[in-house]
Amino acid sequence: MKKWLMMVVSAVLLAGLLSACGTSDKSSGDGGKEEKVLKMGTSADYKPFEYIDTAKSDNIIGFDVDIAKAITKKLGYKLQIQDMEFNGLVTALQNKQIDFVLAGMTPNEERKKSVDFSDIYYSANHLIISKKDSGIKTKEDLKGKTVGVQLGSIQEGIAQDLKNKEKINLKIESRNRIPELIQEVTAGRYDAAIIEDTVAKGYLKNDKKLAGYEIPVVEEAGSAIAFQKGSKLTKEFNAELKKMKENGELDKLIVKWFGADAK
Ligand code: ARG
C-alpha cells in the first residue's frame, strides 16, 4: 500500500517537474532564440473572418486568424489573440495594448489619422439586410425605418451619410456585435441592418426569411491589417502579405473560408 502510494506521488512529482521544465524552457528561452509575442486584437463576431464555433471549441478561428498565423509564423513571432469589441480596437492599438488588428477592418481616412494600415487583402460590398416580406430593397426604401449597424464600423458611417447627406430620413441603431443586429432584424425590432456581403451571406444562407440587397453608390469596403502609427510591423507584414498573394497562399485561404466561387 505504502509502496504504491510512493510510486504515485513520485510519478506526479516527476510529471510536474517535466512540465515545469517544458514551459520554463520556452519562456526563458535561454540559449535558444526567443520568440517575441505579437498581440492581435479582433472582434470575433465576424464569420468567416473571425468567430468562435462554440459547438467545437472556444478558439477564435477564421480567415483573418489564418492570415495572422501564417504571417507571424513566417516572421518568427508567437501569436496571441485578444477578443474585444470592434469599437475599441483602434483605441487599443493607440494605447499599445495590442500590436495589430485583424478584424475585417476597412482602412478609411478617419482611422488613418490614428493607425497605419497594410495593403488590402480582401474586398467586400455593403448589403442592406431585411426580412423578405419587408419590401425593403433599396436605400430609398429605408426612409422612416430603423436601421441597425455595428458600433464604430464604417457601416455606421454609411447609415449616417444616408441620413445626413442623402436626406433619407432613417433611424440609426447600433450594437456591438453582428449577431445582435441579425437578431434584432429577425425579431422585427429593426427594419434592416447594413452588413458586408461576405459576412451577411452566411446569415442569408441560414435564414431564408432574410434578404440582402447591395447598396450601389458607396465605395467598396476592403479589409486591411491595422498597426500602431509608425510601427515597423506594417512593412514586415506587407512583404509577407504580398508573397502570399503571389504564391497562391491567400487564394487558398479565400477558398477555404469563403468558398470556391469567392476568389
Ligand atoms: N469593414 C467594416 C469596418 O471596418 C466592418 C468590420 C467589422 N469587423 C468585425 N470583426 N466585426 O468598419
The CATH superfamily label of the largest domain reads Periplasmic binding protein-like II
Share in helix: 25-40%
Shape: globular
Distance between the termini: 66 Å
Number of strands: 13
Radius of gyration from the alpha-carbon trace, in angstroms: 23 Å
Oligomer: single chain
How many separate helices? 9
Say what the CATH topology of the largest domain is. Answer: D-Maltodextrin-Binding Protein, domain 2
Architecture overview:
With about 260 residues, this protein is of the alpha/beta class. The protein contains 9 helices and 13 strands. The chain has helices spanning about 1-30, 65-75, 90-95, 110, 155-165, 180-185, 195-205, 235-245, 250-260, and strands spanning about 35-40, 45, 50, 60, 75-85, 100, 115-125, 125-130, 145-150, 170-175, 190-195, 210-215, 220-230. The chain has a 5-stranded mixed sheet. A 5-stranded mixed sheet has the order 10-9-11-8-12, with helices on both faces. The chain has a 3-stranded antiparallel sheet with strand order 2-3-4, with helices on one face. Strand 3 (about 50) and strand 4 form a beta hairpin. Bound molecules: arginine. Arginine (ARG) binds near residues 46, 103, 153 and 221. Arginine (ARG) binds next to strand 2.
